[in-house]
Design brief:
about 325 residues, 10-stranded mixed β-sheet, 14 strands, about 35% helix, globular, phosphotransferase activity, alcohol group as acceptor, Tagatose/fructose_Pkinase
Length: about 325
């Protein structure tokens, strides 16, 4: 990877999972299907982001994930995440950690997601205050990422952390990226979000807009737009189609290479980790569009493997294949 100064990332991943990957030679709904192989690892968006940073970043870069863990699946997630070198802020909870199952057949992937167990207010407070003081972790980080939908009972977790970041902004200017779209209206209205990263479907569902461009105008340019300030970014992925990056005054289109996809689950987490790392590293400086291109390259490289691997040589090759073009954008004058 390119040389960079040390950085630190706190990923809030309140909805972890025990991720199981079953690979089939054939798969027919309504029939008995025997898997050829089974792999399992710690899943969840925040867990994937922190793990990808450990694979991509410098050895001294801090990768920290804050999460709720419960039951035997939670024990597995804790052990697997720790084995990757990721530091953890853990609040143990009564509800068992969910299991998610990926079915792979010849490049086709189906994801089965268990319902998330509810957490109590005492458990949320424990993650924030008691067992795992997030405030104490913040000075060690240059960036914070809100990763994935919060479980029932923790709907205001991101809002509470965003308000803490806003209150302490004078002592350290953390870069805050939000990588989720459900229940984040109040978080966006704090004015503290630096980067909103979603896919095309998510950004249209969030705004109700008919197109990604219309959604970007609503988020960045309208009179009451929550990202209407210099430096704020909207990054939108769209599978194999070109991705888009918007600021309030400029926009870019980024092409991505055509891939023989093995498993795309977790590709967005790799993109988030490398994008945010590239944005916040001190040297060499990276433009927002180039930082996003590196993130997309990481996401593409992840798709080449059944398990969540991130290999530097593959990321470098993918980056060479990504082009960046400034696009016409009727943003703020």
């Amino acid at each position: 990877m390119p040389a960079a100064a040390a950085a630190g990332l706190l990923a809030l991943g309140p909805n972890p999972a025990l991720q199981r990957v079953l690979t089939f030679d054939s798969l027919v709904l309504g029939e008995v299907n025997r898997a050829r192989s089974l792999s399992q690892y710690a899943g969840g968006k925040g867990q994937g982001v922190a793990s990808a940073l450990k694979l991509w970043g410098e050895e001294e870069d801090l990768a920290l994930v804050a999460h709720f863990l419960g039951g035997g699946a939670g024990d597995f997630v804790e052990a697997d995440v720790g084995a990757r070198g990721v530091e953890q802020l853990i609040q143990h909870v009564a509800a068992p950690t969910r299991t998610c199952t990926t079915l792979c057949r010849g490049g086709e992937v189906t994801e089965l997601i268990d319902p998330s167990g509810a957490v109590t207010e005492a458990e949320v407070a424990g993650l924030l205050e008691k067992a795992c003081p997030i405030d104490a972790a913040l000075p060690r980080c240059k960036a914070v990422a809100f990763c994935g939908t919060a479980p029932p009972g923790a709907e205001e977790l991101y809002l509470r952390v965003a308000r803490r970041l806003a209150a302490r902004e004078a002592e350290c200017a953390w870069t805050l990226m939000v990588d989720c779209y459900k229940g984040i209206d109040a978080v966006l209205q704090t004015g503290r979000v630096d980067v909103l990263k979603l896919n095309a479907m998510e950004v249209q569902q969030l705004t109700g807009a008919a197109s990604v461009d219309d959604a970007a105008r609503m988020l960045l340019c309208d009179e009451d737009a929550p990202l209407k300030r210099d430096g704020a970014l909207l990054a939108v992925t769209d599978g194999p189609r070109p991705a888009s990056l918007f600021s309030c005054r400029k926009a870019w289109k980024l092409s991505v290479p055509q891939l023989q996809v093995v498993n795309a689950i977790g590709a967005g987490d790799c993109c988030t980790a490398v994008f945010l790392h590239s944005l916040t590293k001190r040297s060499p400086p990276t433009s927002p569009s180039d930082a996003f291109a590196w993130g997309l390259a990481a996401g593409c490289a992840r798709c080449l493997h059944e398990l969540p691997l991130l290999q530097s040589d593959e990321v470098l090759e993918m980056r060479k294949a990504i082009t960046i073009e400034e696009s016409e954008w009727e943003g703020l004058a």
